Amino acid sequence: MFDKFDRKINYLRISVTDRCNLRCIYCMPEEGVPILSHEDILNFDEITEVARVAVSNGVEKVRITGGEPLVRKGIVNLVRMIGEIEGIKDYSMTTNAIFLDKFANELVKAGLHRVNISLDTINTDRFKQMTRGGDIQKVFDGINAAKRAGLEPIKVNCVIKDNDKEPDAVEVSEYCKRNNLQVRYIKEMDLEKGEFAVVQGGTGGDCSSCNRIRLTANGMIKPCLFNDIAFGVRGLGAARAIDLAIGNKPDSGHTNQTGKFYNIGG
Length: 266
Ligand code: SF4
Description:
- The chain is built from 9 helices and 9 strands.
- The chain is α/β, with parallel strands linked by helices.
- It has a single domain (11-264), classed as TIM Barrel, CATH 3.20.20.70.
- Strands 6-5-4-3-2-1-7-8-9 form a 9-stranded mixed sheet.
- It binds iron/sulfur cluster (SF4).
- Residues 205-207, 210, 212, 224-226, 252-253 line the site of iron/sulfur cluster.
């Protein structure tokens, strides 16, 4: 699929839940968030249908995101259902790894290729403070379990305020070198202000070569993270919604006044 700016759209990011088991200070407010009702969240058949239609139209790369995807009940079954679609060349998940120790082996058997892990510090106290209570040992255990299971290469998404010379960023980089992980720096983003930057070590945020569309947890196809445009798969059907999204994909990001990272999946 190509958009009107001749960009090849071959990457679908799927948010499978707006829920999370952490409360990262740059993502979720302290008081928590209004949670989508069960009826509003797409079921496994609906999500798989969108993925199937997207792949039949040229998508080769699929990323499972959230909120935190591993809190979605039956997540391994969903990963398997999408994994059975022929034509997916790169099948990954972005996770905070808190539950990864428990699921790593099953995810590989279900067809997942690799994981991106969110980790902004390796300091125990800072991690607890930044995630409002998270236990960093669970992340380290999850990373080791992913390695043992063969969910590689493992990429670490490290959110930075401004640059990769920040103390936490340097420590995360050194940790990644010691453990044969690939670090990528993501500058803190602001949807409403339209503040974002190209991912250091990745492809995100480079509008000129943007190759992605997103499926939100409540069934909206979004052509761009930094835009309010969205098309509902329940009303339009997967094929029409994807078509409209690509036909209306903006040349570059602007602002997003309606979405939140925890229900779009970054
Ligand atoms: S802001 Fe929009 S167009 Fe730019 S890289 Fe992100 S999703 Fe693509």
